[in-house]
Write a structure and sequence with these properties.
The complex is a heterotrimer of chains A (464), B (263) and C (72).
Chain A (H helix, E strand, L loop, with lengths): L1 H18 L2 H26 E3 L6 H9 L5 H44 L4 H39 L1 H15 L6 H10 L1 H7 L6 H10 L9 H12 L5 H31 L10 E3 L8 H36 L1 E2 L2 E2 H15 L4 H9 L7 H11 L9 H10 L4 H13 L4 H11 L2 H30 L1
Antiparallel strand pairs in A: 3-4
Helix pairs in contact in A: 4-5, 4-11, 5-12, 6-7, 7-8, 8-18, 10-11, 10-16, 10-17, 12-15, 13-14, 14-15, 17-19, 18-19
Chain B lengths: L7 H8 L11 E6 L5 H9 L3 E5 L6 E9 L2 E7 L11 H13 L3 E7 L3 H14 L3 E6 L1 H6 L2 E3 L1 H8 L3 E3 L8 H12 L14 H18 L8 H9 L3 H12 L14
Parallel strand pairs in B: 1-4, 1-5, 5-6, 6-8
Antiparallel strand pairs in B: 2-3, 3-4
Helix pairs in contact in B: 8-9
Chain C lengths: L10 E7 L3 H9 L7 E7 L6 E5 L2 E5 L1 H4 L2 E3 L1
Antiparallel strand pairs in C: 1-2, 1-5, 2-3, 3-4
The chains are: A mainly alpha (464), B alpha/beta (263), C alpha+beta (72).
Amino acid sequence: MELTKIKDFNELLSNISDSLNGKQREQLRDQIVKDIYSNAEVIADNNVSMQGEQTGIGEKIDDILTSKWLGFPIMLLMLGGVFWLTIVGANYPSAMLGEFLFWVEGHLSNLFMAVGAPNWLHGILVEGMYRTLAWVISVMLPPMAIFFPIFTLLEDLGYLPRVAFNLDNLFKKSGANGKQSLTMSMGFGCNAAGVIAARIIESPREKLLAILTNNFVPCNGRFPTLLILSMIFMGTVGGRGSSLLAAGIVVLLVLIGIAITLLVSWILSKTILKGIPSSFTLELPPYRKPQIGRVLVRSFIDRTLFVLWRAIVVAAPAGGIVWLLANNTIGGVSIIDYVANLIDPFATLIGLDGVILMAFILGLPANEIVLPILVMSYLSLGSMIEPDSADALRGILVNNGWTWVTALCTMLFSLLHFPCGTTILTIKKETNSWKWAIFGAVMPLTVAIIVTFLVNQIFTTLFL
Amino acid sequence: MGLTAKSSGLNLLRETFNLDVERNNPIIALAGNPNTGKSTVFNALTGLKQHTGNWPGKTVTQAQGYYENQGQEYTLVDLPGTYSLLASSTEEMVARDFICFAKPDATIVVADATNLERNLNLVLQVTELTDNVVLCLNLMDEAERKNIKIDIKGLEEELGIPVIPTIARDGIGLNDLKNMVTAIVNQDKQIKPVKVKYSPQIEAAVEELLPEIKNTLGELSEGLNLRWLALRLLEGDQTILDSMQNHYFRENLKGGVDCYGVD
Amino acid sequence: MLLTQLPLGVISEVVSLEAEGIKRRRLLDLGLIPGTQIIAKRRSPSGDPTAYLIRGTVIALRSEETNLIKVR
């Protein structure tokens, strides 16, 4: 009975619609909106008194942050500054943590020996799981504990909408939405979070663009890989100059990521996601003093611990698996060696080697563990160095045939390759489609292979 | 209205909004424009007792939390920050539908004291939908810095709803806010919002439409906010009919549910 | 004149909206109704979008939208 009422009601609505032409309908709606605003105006006028209008400091800041000549350089400087602070600040605590955790490892080994535990148990638990964990923690915790609070602070201050304001035109020309730069900013922290953040984009087409290309922003899991490789290969280790150079290289990589985001968005807008940009409205809210204490707590609990915990949960079993792969043999060679050799010819084409490519594949659950797996694998192949410092790491990599082109291709592959498993699942959830989730992994992989192939071919021919 | 959560029909409706009706808490909605400190109010009230999910069937984030006042636990639902409730975006539709169909026992509208006019636009749209509204006038410290003076008593009179000045980031005024919500829920505070006055052209069109709606709905029109409905029909808002179908006919609801029970 | 052509810092008033459908509704909901005061505050370094002060809030609009708004 109620259903028929609704039907009648629907009919009533269409009757009313029919009785008005488009113009009249528009007028009515305009008038309704206008009347509500007029009521609000009257009430506000009656009860609010303002003594002297003053232009706030915020406007002057905005004049600089969005100015024609300074807007872009300032954004770059901020980006570089955040990276530099992260590198410089993380260096020392990272080394301390590493030293401490490997000291603990020594004692753990002694303990295992004292109780007469079998070798394989010690191998899986200490050399596999514990060592990978120690790596993930000492390498990731310090940069995250610096990067996330700074980032959250910028977020709280209200700087991010200004970034979207500055960059919108570039996105518009690629057929995308300026708010995509906000989702990309989130992506620095975590691509899955970036994918969810795409909800702020109303047009489904532009939302999809933002979701599919978020991978091209290096998330926190890949960030340390980029930082460390640029530190040990592009600048000499130690000294202030090298951290500046390393920051510069990371900025450059991020810019490459942004350029590829725009290019891919443009190509998709012209092909499978055809369409013109929808409307764009963005509020530039007044700057507000951030609640520093809250920011610290929130960024530490919500972001740092969250991401670290996820990394740990994935890293420990992965470390165990890698140890097993390294210490079990097929026809006389370890499984790692076997698989690495199998994919080595292809990996070499794109400037990597079999072990690097395998580390990326094993890192699918969480990109954080790519570097630890890589080092573990190299170590299992005979190197005896304890990977507790950047110098030692450089030694391991160089011993295994790395050149700066290898480092460059590894960084580019890390920047582009594919989002982690969590992000792929998040794409599935947000788009409600496996098709897009798989596309969101395969498309970046294709881009990564093309780019690293070209870079490898060109640079090896030219310089090596 | 008050503790209408006892009626099973309403509980069924509320469940469709992912509300845990087992807790038997009064439901409080938190509305407001973007950038008014709404999430600061939400965080300050609920602390760590909050969780996020999605609005049913939508990829719009829904945050819920719990807080206690005077020995009673309340469920606070954070609505998407919007400038309006006229359903021109998914967020606006979600916010409107929640107020309309989940019938919160009270609705807090957070407003930016430095920008009252724009914020009142939303306040007036909320008070068109439900009576039990309290205005949380936030960012009072910024207003003071900008030499903006607001006549709280005058505002209360002209809106017909209680107004609580707050500085949410410092926790100032939040106890008053909680107490006011409690008073509203316990029906210690009767609220009769002053409704929007439309121009004669609109009022005439509404008058003309009212008998037709009454006729169509028959006895169902009892207790409905026909005026609000007439306005939506006039502006050709199809979404409200879709929402009515969604929320009323997904479950077999028996009486006791008066969707627009505000008149 | 079109809102797009409004120079920075000049106080102006909305005359009419040429937009239709959902676009019109969105612009109206932002408070862009005839008679509303509007000031162009700043332009993006790349020339578009432009941020306008509308009823106490600064909102950035692309030229696609401002071409549909007449001001005086």
